[in-house]
Amino acid sequence: MKLTETGYAKINLGLDVLGLRPDKYHEVAMVMQTISLADTVTFTESPELKVTTDLAGLEGGPSNLAWKAAVLMGEYAHREPRVHIHIEKKVFLAAGLAGGSTDAAAVLRGLNRFWELDLSGEKLERLGAKLGSDVPFCVAGGTALATGRGEILTPLPDLPPLQLVLAKPALEISTPWAYREFDKQKNVVHPDIEGMTQAVRDGDVQGVLRRFGNVLEPVTAGAHPEIREIQRQMLENGAEPAMMSGSGPTVFGIVKDKETGEKIAGILQAQRLETAVAYMTGRKNV
């Protein structure tokens, strides 16, 4: 038996940090969105759990979130996870795009089907919350408001499949570092997450775009000026708006059509940046 799942990347259309919680996590309010840039996760039977990837240097062992997801599903189902999980990576690594989280969510969905467990999407999201804050969102994706530490999800109506271009400089940003540095910031400009959420519900795409904002962007861009340079080049060549996703370093820009996205990607690729052209995707039925 062979089964395939798709792990879609996510971007943050709005990201606000509301403070430090007693459990040492940060309270957040985010509008999250899946996009067509995606990993392919394939499941086949195996004498023992094995996770492999097509990227040299990306470990598939116990430190990989996909492995942890398989172990968690095995524990829940009271069975040995005798399965070979192979991940073909397209989502940039350590990029603010939930690449590891989306693979873990794909494993939860895939093993649910592979073992015919018939678990609901809500149950898979609760299991995913044990693995990481972005995993619950990645189970069904689409457009959603995420609160708490990111695991409390309110699904929103799907936005249209807006086109976008993404570029990642050769940086690795530690999310804990970004949040620690954020805690030192003064005069933070908070995005209007409530207004953005209402604009999504109203189908007001321009209202959504006007409210783009990420409180972690000044932190990461302050330490790494190349992020502002990528934004500048995107805006000058037809993207509007352009913003960093998550704690970075990937920058994405909304473009009017695929051709504009490909033109911008070509310019940035020539500067040795990882680039992709993608579009927003809707919520999956799980």
UniProtKB/TrEMBL annotation:
Entry keywords, A to Z = ATP-binding, Isoprene biosynthesis, Kinase, Nucleotide-binding, Transferase
Name of the protein: 4-diphosphocytidyl-2-C-methyl-D-erythritol kinase
Q: Which residues form the GHMP kinase N-terminal domain?
A: 64-142
Name the source's superkingdom.
Answer: Bacteria
Catalyzed reaction equations? 4-CDP-2-C-methyl-D-erythritol + ATP = 4-CDP-2-C-methyl-D-erythritol 2-phosphate + ADP + H(+)
Organism of provenance: Succiniclasticum ruminis DSM 9236
The coiled-coil segments of this chain are none
Residues annotated as signal peptide: none
What residues sit in the active site?
Answer: K10, D134
**Per the database record, which ranges form the GHMP kinase C-terminal domain?**
206-270
State its role. Answer: Catalyzes the phosphorylation of the position 2 hydroxy group of 4-diphosphocytidyl-2C-methyl-D-erythritol.
**Which molecular function terms from Gene Ontology are attached?**
4-(cytidine 5'-diphospho)-2-C-methyl-D-erythritol kinase activity; ATP binding
UniProt similarity note: Belongs to the GHMP kinase family. IspE subfamily.
- The EC number on file is 2.7.1.148
Q: In which pathway does it act?
A: Isoprenoid biosynthesis; isopentenyl diphosphate biosynthesis via DXP pathway; isopentenyl diphosphate from 1-deoxy-D-xylulose 5-phosphate: step 3/6
Q: What class of enzyme is it?
A: transferase
- GO annotation (BP), single: terpenoid biosynthetic process
